[in-house]
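Submission sheet (multi-component)
Chains listed below:
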Amino acid sequence: MSAHKAAEKSGSPTIRLLAGLAITLTAVVIYSGYTIAQLRGLKQLQEATMERNRKDSLLLLRIQNNLNSLAVAMRDMVDGSEGYPLIAWEGQFRRIRADLDGALRREQEYAPGDPTSGQRNYLMGSVAQFWDAVGRLFALGRAGKEKEARVLIRLSLEARQEALSTAVARLLVLNNETEQEATRRTEEIYARVERNVYLFVSSMLVLILLTSLYLVEYNRRVFRQVAELSQRRSELAQQLISIQESTLRSVSRELHDDFGQVLTATGAMLQRTAKYVLPAAALRDLREVQEIVQKSLDKVRSLSRALHPVVLEEIGLESALEQYLDSFEKRTGLRIRYEKNGPGRELERKVSIQLYRVMQEALNNVAKHSKASEAVVRLQYLEAATVLEIEDDGIGFPGRNKIGMGLISMRERAELANGNVEFSSGKKGALVRVTIPAGECAPVGDHAPVGDHA
Amino acid sequence: MTRRSFLQAAGPAAPLCAATSKAASSLWGAALPPGGAGFRLVDVTSQAGIFFHHNTGAFGAKYLPETLGSGCAFLDFDGDGWLDILLVNGMDWPGHKRQRSTLHLYRNNRNRSFTDVTERAGLAIEMYGMGIAVGDYNNDGFPDLYLTACGQSRLFENTGKGHFIDVTEKSGLGGRSGFSTSALWFDYDRDGLLDLVVCNYVKWSPEDDVFCSVDGERKSYCTPEAYHGSTCWLFHNRGNGAFEDVTARSGIFDASSKSLGVAMLDYDGDGWLDLFIANDTQPNKLYRNLRNGKFEEVAVHEGVAFSDDGRARAGMGVDAADFDNSGRMSIAVTNFDNEMMALYKQGRDGIFSDAAGVTGIGTASRTRLGFGCAFGDLDLDGNLDLVAVNGHIDETVRHIRGNTGYAQAPLLFLNDGKGRFRDVAAPVGEGFAEPKVARGLAYGDFDRDGDLDLLITTNNGPAFLYRNDLTNGNRSLRIRLVGKKSNRDAIGAVVRVSTSEGTQSRMVKTGSSYLSQSELALTFGLGRRARADRMVIAWPSGENQEFKNVAAGSYECLEGFSIAAK
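Outcome: structure written.
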């Protein structure tokens, strides 16, 4: 009883489990959000600095390349080996300028930090001055002043180009430093995220472990309680059956012994009385009384036998079965076939009485519910067990879940005899099979009679 | 059953699968059925009487020009309707004279053999020749020659009487020395007179030669990075036999270029000829014709300056043609080994992108150092195939590179008409796939059997003439155009031939390939068809002519007149 109370007291774990689940899910959501935010921050950092930086460096290299092309062109112009007037280079300069302007414009977009910083202002200013000088150069070229134009290249343009090159190189170095800084910060964030992931995973593992342990312990307790309850219920049922059996047996004995003897004595006395010369009417009455007493005696015996089949103890299970089946057939009109297989063996009293009772219950069910016309009772003595089967050709067991008291008592009785009972629908109709392990069957000759013989 | 479903069906039996697919691929690679390419290329060089050996003049100083020559041409110099052959030659360097070597001109005997007529033609002149451009610049009906050279390039006028006279000085093309490579004739201003484009490589002379070395001790040939670039030239034909240098004025001037190949094309379809120039280690150039005598350089914008990963490659030879019968011209460029060939194809937006990878050309050309290249319908199936000849520049290359040789096999890519090319150089036979140190490549139908034969020159080696023997029974429609209002060679004319399969378009062009010139007649493959549904000629003058139901065969068309079988 105490286990049952404990179960009630501890209540269902559902609410606690749901709460645990909610906590876990919340933790996962919060943590995922946190991680995503961290990673997004990282991505932004990468985009904002590293990616921009990379693109900026590429553009600076493109600018550097253009500046180199300008240097090569100016060298060709100064050495005069092409044999064309300087103005011929105008197209080449225009193409380089278009690309350089485009690159510079895009470089402004990607430039890390302040695009109006000193270095960049200097670069833009220098570029503007350079193109001014180029404009002057081609103006001189158009005016046919080739010599002055070449001097302009040597004195002004080449120096400006070099200064521009240096400025771009400085920006590249700056980019490199920014990139290193960004890399360091990225690594920091990665380390933090990694640490947090480990922390989260381990706390989740602990949480899951605790929940599992709690569930295991709770289940174990519940199973223990269920087992205890089941045991108790079974004991109670079996006690009930035992009490019922012993009560019926004593009532049966009372009927058989006391009433039987009284009625037998009464019958004998009436017989004796009949030997006296009596008027015909009295004799007729006497015979009538004699018949009534005989009928009462038969009834008492039959009732006694029904309440407790003494025959079991007197003539054994098999004969008792046969006797019962005869009377059952007569009583119900159901055709019963009896089959016996295997070498017979004596059964313990508690075993045979339970088998007998199961047979009774099963046949009663057949008669009441099965709508069968025929039933088979098979008693098989196997090496390892004694098996009793009752099969009919009726409608079978109705609902799988509808187990009536009859079936429960059959199971309890089988368990009382340390066996088990199976209910199934056979080829046609219902099949009840009781199996009692051979260990529970006493060898022949070891039979201790129970109860008094009539 | 597809390959995928086959592999899936085979399931976990991986080794079996691997073996099967390997077997299948080797079958695919080697065993075309006999005549599977549809034609055979037969080496008929000596049979045709061509005994030529290219002289680089090499004596150990490893001068840069020695690695690059020389070119060849199919031309009909005597106007008899049979293609003659010109092979450009180098010469010994001054101070290291051992032999006399000149270019060679072979006249077609009309019986599949040739006669060397160099002396008689007045061309037995020693020069360090590189390339050749053939065009009738004075519209007299006889093709004239522009021979590029390391030094002074020369213009030879065809007198029409079987010989040539040097008009370099008279025409105003004299007095300029350069390392000139490919050249082409085209009428960029549509005045009916052929103008001249000349590519220059780098600023080099024996005096300015730079010492380069692979092993740090012995001299080896330099790469172009060692030298300054040099501008290409554009000469405008004044019509009085003289030319005017319009390099600077037209916007062609670019002293950074190191040009080897040049092709004419009309990439924007406006009827005005544009120019593509393949540069070695420098970005390629695409000059768009602004229709006012000026050009605008648009290679970067149009996507043909660099490889797809943005590198300037070592462009050598180039050809432009409508290989996918889309009506738009694509550009093929041969490059250094490990750079792959380029096949710049126009997208819907008109911007080019390199389709070498997806068409199968890229992988096959990866280990080759390509020079001459040309689109031509060798199997006459109506789809332009692509030939590229290869060969390294440095004999010592076999010691320094693992996957490439000095002599290399040519590539002959058959176009399947579905956007894929397959190399069939080996199966077409007769030693065509024998490794060569090839440079020049030209095509032409020298035996007048309706298909394209191939002419290949090698560096410091013989020339090769391959006769095309068709085995697939395909027919062709060949047409030679004669301009009246347009320039007489009709250079720049576009002919479109339609069949139920689609429309092929070809341009009459000079230049292309490398240092070489192919025939001016156009060849259209008709497959097994007996006739084409329609032929439209768009003349450079702007005139259009249309002909319906044209039977396979060889024709000539005088501008404004009907076509005549020839």
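Remark: Residues 1-8, 441-454 of chain A have pLDDT under 50 and may be disordered.
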